[in-house]
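I'd like us to work through together how a protein chain folds, taking it slowly. To get us started, please write out a protein record for me. Go ahead whenever you are ready, and we will take it from there:
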Amino acid sequence: MTHTAPEIVSPPGTSAPDVHGLDVTHVHGDAYDVDIRGHRLLVDQPMEAGGTDVAPTPVELFAASLATCVAFYAGRYLKRHGLPRHGLRVHTEFTMAAEPPARVDSLRLTITPPPALSAQRHAALLAVASHCTVHNTLRLPPRIDIGLEPQEP
């Protein structure tokens, strides 16, 4: 019996959504290889959690996904206005929830704009960066379906 992913159905009169894929494969211990359009990255767990600490954890990548999305949107704002991106930085901190289920409880992102950005543009940069795709996704969470497809013997 093979499980297939649920069919994505578009509302009448709309086009089908683009489906994006990636593959995660076990490497060793708690380490996993992620293949995204031919780009490879690794995830693991820290030594104190039983891993070998050869890569960031999935939760760290989750926080990094938000931080890099914010940075990308901020960078595009700067580029659109002919301003340099050199010096743009996003520092991110997160806390884990103390109560089950295991999850990120809070994220705090601090954007350091390039020195060339005038104070008059700070609010606009923050507004644009705050509407990045990952942040919008967290504000309006997607439907998540987790299925199982057993391997054929």
User: Anything to note?
Assistant: Residues 22-55 form one domain.
